[in-house]
Input
Amino acid sequence: MEIKIQNNPESVTAVMTGSFDTLAAERMESVVQELESLSSKPLTIDCNSLDYVASSGLRVFLRLRKACAAQGQQVTLLGVNENIMEVLKVTHFDKIFILK
Amino acid sequence: MRIIRQKKADGGLQFRMTVFITAVVLVVSSVVMVVLAHIVTEDCERILQERLSDDITAISRIMEQRLLRIEGSTNMVAALVKESLSCKEDIDTLLQRSLESMDNVYGVAIVFEKGRLPGTEGYCELYAWNSNAGTRLSGVYINGDELEDDEDWIESYVNGNSSWSEIKNYDLGREDIICYYCPLYGPECTRIGMVYSAVFLDYLTSFVTEYKTRTDIDISIYNSAGEMIVAPDEYIRELSPENLVTMENTIDNIGWKVILSADRKIIDKVVGRTLVGMSLIFALMFIVVSLVIGLTVRYVAKPYIEEQQRIQREKAVIENEMRLASKAQHELVPHIFPPFPERQDIDISACLHPARSVGGDLYDYFLSNDLLYFCIGDVSGKGLQGSLFMAATHYLFRSTATAMPLADAARQINISLCADNEQCRFVTLWLGCLDLGTGELEYVNAGHDSPLLVRGGKTEFLQISENMPMGVLDQAEFVPGKLKLLPGDTLFLYTDGITEAMNARNEEFGKDRLFEAVSALPAESAGDLIERVLNSIRQHSSETEQSDDITMLSLRLNDNKTINS
Output
């Protein structure tokens, strides 16, 4: 699991690679906190290289969404694969994120 | 108690380390000693041989030089005396000077044949001796017609060669002497007599004693006649040849033989000394190493070990607390089957196997009159925090389910879970309310996996969730679903720990395998169905560690046949 942050002037992009499971969620805590601190800008999570998201990973998505929502910003999920889309649909999280 | 055990463990460690190190040092030093003894013995023997070889050359040369000096001085007298035959005083002076020029020479003398010294008729001897008192005496013996009865003299005289005599003792108060004879020729190259010098043996051999005390090496010297000029000491003489290292050399011009003999015990002595030295070094090293290790253990390893022990203790405490939490969690969910033995119309069984000691899954059921309330849920995140969220969910379900319509209860639970949910935990929850009288089931699926319905040998997944998990959005609404259960129907609820159970090839158990396991044969009871699915999962992922909580709830509405039987 890897997260690369691109802090642009008008927006933030987080490129996620690998499997976002419980272990990854624990390891990525500091990166997630950094992303939370950048929540004054709209956030795009680039999921093109993200294979799998466990519930711990979904929780991180929710945390980022909550942080952005507090500052009136939205979170976009970019290029989610079929598996992740199924998870998002079952949980109805597809309704609270912008999917592109 | 714990502290006492601790100290014992430390003492044991130090003792074991000490014994181990001592054993290693002893073994290593013994091996080194044996090897060293071998090497040193070989080396010593080689060095001793070289030493003997070097020394014998040097000793031979010293002997030779001393002998040559005497020979030279005597030959000189023989050469010069020809010029002074007419003057006895001159001969006397010559002898005196020759005596002075040589150290440790007892005397120099000239023996003239009959009538060869002018003014004499018989054999005649002119001499210069060193007296016992240190003064020099000179004089003339007139011997008349016969030479003194001395074989050496006669032999040398007859042969006309210069030569060294055998050992003599003239009882002069000092040690033995040997003589050098040199023929004397007159002006017409006819032999007219003989010059000889008598030398104390100790002059030739004084260095032998000194050498012996210095080196422990014995010197013996033999003249050409085989006479022992310097004898080996008694101790050496008694040793058998294999206990000796010897070296032999001949002094060419006089045919003397020099033999150096060393007792092999010299080698043993040197080897012994070396080994004692090495033992001391080893002992010193051992002490130093022990000190270093002792200090290391004291100041480096001990704190580390103590730290490890502390961590172990803390881990044990945490594990114990987790065990208690796990126990509490298990006690939280109903776990006595059958739960309602008085009710023949309903058969319920469930299981909860957390992946860690405490998990985030939950199930629950309870009866209120003819209404059976039940739920199954999966909290995002495991461990203690997950289990607290699970406990909260469980409590909220119990407290709201009976108080209001199911959809409202779901809304209430969600609002409560959303409050102060910093970590954005959420729970997928399937909650239902079954009227046991009518079979009417009302349910709310909040983002949870669809349960399976087994009806008359047919199995199907219920409609997927129309709602979001709880704890995400506090204003979320929950759409309920309705279903009429018929007698004989089985409802099977589960969490994703089942469908996502992995095998060694990283394949999920999946919905298809679950479907097969549930629909394979009509189950005898709710408990049987759960047992069957568990076995199927165990077969699938026998070699891998359980990664997620495995939770199931099986509910069977008995038909009249079952009730009657």
About this structure: The longest helix of chain A spans residues 55-70. Strands of chain A lie at 2-7, 12-20, 43-53, 75-78, 98-99. The mean pLDDT of chain A is 90.
